Structure of Cyclic nucleotide-binding domain-containing protein:
Amino acid sequence: MFEAFQQQLANNGFTAQEIDQLTQSVQQLELPTRHILLHQGQVAEDIYFLISGICHSSYLTDKGKEFSKEFYWENDWIIGFESLIMQQPSPYLLESLTPCTMLSLPVATIRQWRDEKHSIYLKLLETQLMYKENKERFMLLYSPEERYQLFCQHYPELLERLNDYQVAAYLGITPISLSRIKKRGQS
């Protein structure tokens, strides 16, 4: 179980000592489908590393609309840095879309590492920053059709695990637009 976690940490430049410290600080969770890990407006008590399964975060409006923030799958960190840094309620909902195995790490531990200027905190921050910049580039530099093609190339296994509504949300388009893109690709 911890092998994937430790390998991901090693791939992201964590030292053996940091990997050991993180491994000792986490708790394993087994969650069912549609389990809410964090309600919008709730203060986060943990961050997560996803071993298996898919999670989703979304913003819910007062008018009943839902806007997809992000999808997470195997080997993803799920960290709400805005909430962690500002020590305020989460602006989004976080839930499992499938049965999930994940590791949780208390936010209190992360805050302690932040205050100590611990290298683990810096590496987690850098990992998230690189991920966010890649996602921003993906959303800004490519047309919806190109985003769909890249998604198909990079995450073919997710096409079988997500429905069209979820894929469209990840791509930042409507399900109708996705349907049109898929039809054009079949012509």
